[in-house]
Structures are given as structure tokens and as C-alpha cells.
Amino acid sequence: MHTLQVTVTGTAGPGNTVSAQVFTNLASFRVIVTSANTSSNMLELVDNNGKVTLISIAAAATFTVPTVASAATLSPITRLTFVTGTVQLATITPPVTGYHELVFIFTDANPGALLTTGNIKTAYTPLQNKAFSLHYDPVTAKYWTEAVA
Fold first, then answer.
1. Global pTM exceeds 0.85
2. Can you spell out the DSSP letters for 75-138?
3. Is there a single domain that holds both residue 37 and residue 96?
């Protein structure tokens, strides 16, 4: 399952202005570029029940990675998240059920460590501006850090 946050500037259809929308429990999503005519390019979202949603996108549309402040508990909504601040992280609220991976990039010069007092299996001290992955095991209900050399 996937989660996708779409940030749109301008209008999304006649009279409908959209600033951000989060789609969760997606079986898949893809961008369909059909021509140089940007009004015909689409974002296709398929949920776990097979329902397909098409959103018209312009070529200049961008998908922004969310930035959140560090906290004892984080609730990411996308696979990749930038984290600011120095607060130690103990618990991650899973954005989906079942196995999934998360990637965090801590942007502070002295980011807070990952603690084992919540649902993180192994303590880890992130490095500034270095991506690292966490893998969620639904059997243990823990996030496992990916080996970092």
C-alpha cells in the first residue's frame, strides 16, 4: 500500500481550488504523460478496492516531500519525510497497515537519536542530511533500521 500527498497550486477543475490532498491505502499510483499538451497529463490512483481516480496535472506540477518537526512521536504520511529539530524519536505512527518502508532525512546539525522505548527496534543516531530507511514488521510491530555502513 502507498500513501501520496499531492500539493496543487491553482485550480483543480472548474471553481475547485486544491492546496493539498493526501491519498492513503493506494495499491498503486502513476503519472501518465500523454503529450506535450500539459492539460492532458494525468495522475492515476488505484486504491486497494480497484477504484481508479484520475487527476489532471500540468507538466509543472510537483510533488513536495513533507517536512515535520522532530518529536517523540512522528506520524509520517509519505515514504520520504524531512525532519527538522533535535527531539529524540521513540515512536512512529505507521501510515499504513502491514509491511512498509519509511525514509527519513534529518536536516538539523545535531538530530535527536532514535530510541527503543517505543516501536523502534534498534537505537540509531541519524546524520545530518543523510537518508536512512526503516522497515516495519507487523508481527513485532517494530521499525527496524536498515544497516548503515
1. no
2. --SSSEEEEES---B-EE--SSSSSEEEEEEE-SSSPPPBPSSSSBSS-B-PPTT-EEEEEEET
3. no
